[in-house]
Amino acid sequence: MRLRIAAFLFSFSLLPAHAQTVEPGGGNIENVEVKMHFRTVRGQLNSCELEYLLWFRDHYASQGRPVALRGAIAMMWLKEDQLPAIVYKIRGSEFKGSAFAPFDISHGYLSAAGSNLAGKETVIFKCEGDGACIGYPLDALPLLIDGVYAGFRLTYLRKGSSQDVTAPLRVPLQQAQEFVTCTGQLLDAIQKKLK
Prior knowledge:
Layout: H1 2-14, E1 21-22, E2 27-41, E3 44-58, E4 65-76, E5 85-96, E6 99-103, E7 105-112, E8 115-116, E9 123-127, E10 131-136, H2 141-150, E11 152-158, E12 165-169, H3 173-194
Antiparallel strand pairs: 1-2, 2-3, 3-4, 4-5, 5-6, 5-10, 7-8, 7-11, 9-10, 11-12
């Protein structure tokens, strides 16, 4: 982990200013990792999850210090007698001194293709340490499909802050196609179980 942090900070310092994407309300977006996971329980598909890691300089809430956002965007089917839900997980940490320190996130929402899910959440709870998990009903699925192809805007509110911070997330084509395939398989399995 220390080697990864050192490599990030070194590469961060070498990037020319024109190579950085500056995001209003956030900072210079530097690096993104996206992984797709087909999650199962007892051999049955129950979740399609895009895991992300995003590094950037946050000029609003962190005075330009490097920030890491880690989390997932998922469609989950946890109970056979209920419809699946859309879940947005987000954790944040900022570089202070010689290490990354986590910060509390009190709220967040997803946006894609000019639409957002602000105010449409069905549940918000603390998860994965200092992060937030925000649940949405299944009718948020079209926004997810738009987001995997057109890109998401990840928005969060730090505890004690008065303004949202937003960072863009682009999903590579392979992971986007895997996510769409997974959601199709999950919807087919749900339809069969609910008949």
